[in-house]
Amino acid sequence: MRFERTEPFLADYKRLSDAEKEMFRSAARIFNDACDRFCETKDASTWPAQLRVKSIVNAPGIFEMTWSFAGPDGRATWEWTTAVDADGRSCPAVRWRRLGNHRIFNDP
Length: 108
What we know:
- The structure is a single chain.
- By secondary structure, the protein is α+β, with helices and mostly antiparallel strands.
- The protein has one domain (about 1-100): RelE-like (YaeB-like fold, 2-Layer Sandwich), CATH 3.30.2310.
- The protein has helices at about 5-15, 20-40, and strands spanning about 1-5, 55, 60-70, 75-85, 90-100.
- It has a 5-stranded mixed β-sheet.
- Strand 3 and strand 4 (about 75-85) form a beta hairpin.
- The protein is globular and about 40 Å long.
């Protein structure tokens, strides 16, 4: 799955501890595989339960993914977008928007 990152996401990532960064990267690998399956099937049941992927209330088109439940609370917001592959074809991609704890939901 192709992805891009917003400036707020990059700033959020820099604030994470090394352990938090590794937790996010580990969850992102699982998320990436699930995105590929979802794009093939359009079946929401392909999202792994441990990631708690769901849409954000009052933020149309923006979703959240949980990368840590306890110590620390870890969330990421994202949206679908389109990228262009090496052959010039459009393909689905993820735009990572924010990263951190519940406070990111104030400005997802």
